[in-house]
Specification:
- The chain folds into 2 domains: 167 residues, Quinone Oxidoreductase, Chain A, domain 1, CATH 3.90.180.10; 153 residues, Rossmann fold, CATH 3.40.50.720.
- The chain contains 11 helices and 15 strands.
- Strands 3, 4, 5, 6, 7, 14 and 15 form a 7-stranded mixed sheet that branches.
- The protein is globular and about 60 Å long.
């Protein structure tokens, strides 16, 4: 099969120059695995960080590539079940599915086929195409956990979403709106009309005014969803949140974590800080919590997407070709994408 691979661990910022399009064996699914004929994948910022060994500042969760053992990057996939393991119960050959690939395994979905645990696979809703479904994989899991599971937003509550025009933020806007919340989106002016088109009631252009100044002298916010990260955002959020409100971040106190190597001491301090804030906030408020991708999110998201329509934003579609993947990686590294960058693998 054709696959985008790396044969050594690239340094930060060099993944785009390190990839190659190579011929690789089709992975054989284990007993609880599903082999997917990949129709679409995508490029996430975490795909860069895992490949470059800088995930969350330098946690080496991905397999180390070598000249003999190539690693295929990628997380998101959508496609058709080609083969199942002997203990797989939820899927059959021919099912249209989407989901994520474990970053601890070397045979990712930037390829014509990938194999992953059935626990990480979801049935594709009828109202979503395979192209749209792949944009709801990792981004859907993180945004659903942020809005629906961590907060359980209620009708007429106020929700501030920081970083509302990206793959995660744009889905968070829609989940919050479907809860009946009043959604205030923070993004640049060039994305304002786009974010309003998917449900935001109000947009704050962070390039011209801070959300603290924009919300000054107004009723306090119930939930702040932070897709950007950084202590400055955390401090500003405390000024606009109700005492019994919630600050939910998908990044933590280090903005764009993974873009640099923090070292183990700073990584441990970051986790200690998150743990301390989480515990202390339960007593002092507003509640502080970290959202992400866990096994507990898959089945609720799958059920929700079957019952509710979502309009994932797709920034651009590229092909499984070296130069196009290089350009896509470089674009994602800017943190300026409007929705998802999708890789078309099979028609």
């Amino acid at each position: 099969m054709k696959a985008i691979t790396i044969n050594q661990r690239p340094k930060i910022g060099t993944l785009s120059q390190s990839i190659r399009l190579t011929d690789e064996p089709v992975p054989e699914p284990g007993k609880q695995d599903v082999l997917i004929k990949v129709h679409y994948s995508s490029i996430n910022i975490d795909d860069l960080h895992v490949s470059e060994g800088s995930f969350y500042g330098g946690i080496p969760i991905g397999p180390k590539p070598s000249q003999k053992k190539h690693v295929i990057p990628g997380t998101d996939f959508s496609g058709i079940v080609e083969k199942i393991g002997s203990k797989v119960k939820r899927f059959k050959v021919g099912d249209h599915v989407f989901g994520i690939h474990s970053p601890t395994r070397p045979d990712g979905p930037w390829a014509e086929f990938c194999s992953t645990s059935e626990n990480y696979v979801m049935h594709k809703p009828d109202h979503l195409s395979l192209k749209e479904a792949v944009a709801c994989a990792q981004a859907g899991l993180v945004s659903f956990d942020t809005i629906m599971l961590k907060n359980n937003l209620a009708k007429n509550q106020k929700c501030l979403i920081i970083g509302a025009s990206g793959g995660i933020g744009s889905l968070a806007v829609q989940f919050a709106k479907q809860c009946g919340a009043y959604v205030i989106a923070v993004c640049s002016a060039r994305n304002a009309s786009l974010v309003k088109s998917i449900g935001a009631d109000e947009v704050i252009d962070y390039t011209s005014i801070s959300f603290v100044d924009a919300l000054k002298d107004r009723e306090k916010i119930d939930v702040v969803a932070d897709i950007v990260g950084g202590r400055e955002i955390e401090k500003n959020a405390e000024q606009v949140l109700q005492k019994n409100g919630s600050f939910t971040t998908v990044i933590g106190p280090v903005r764009y974590i993974g873009d640099t190597y923090l070292g183990w001491m700073k990584i441990l301090k970051t986790f200690a800080y998150i743990g301390w804030r989480t515990i202390i906030s339960r007593f002092s408020g507003p509640k502080y919590q970290l959202a992400g991708t866990t096994k507990a999110v898959f089945r609720p998201l799958e059920k929700y997407l079957i019952e509710h329509k979502i309009n994932p934003l797709i920034d651009r579609e590229i092909k499984l070709m070296e130069q196009e993947i290089r350009d896509g990686i470089s674009y994602i590294a800017t943190h300026r994408s409007r929705g998802k960058v999708i890789i078309k693998v099979h028609s």
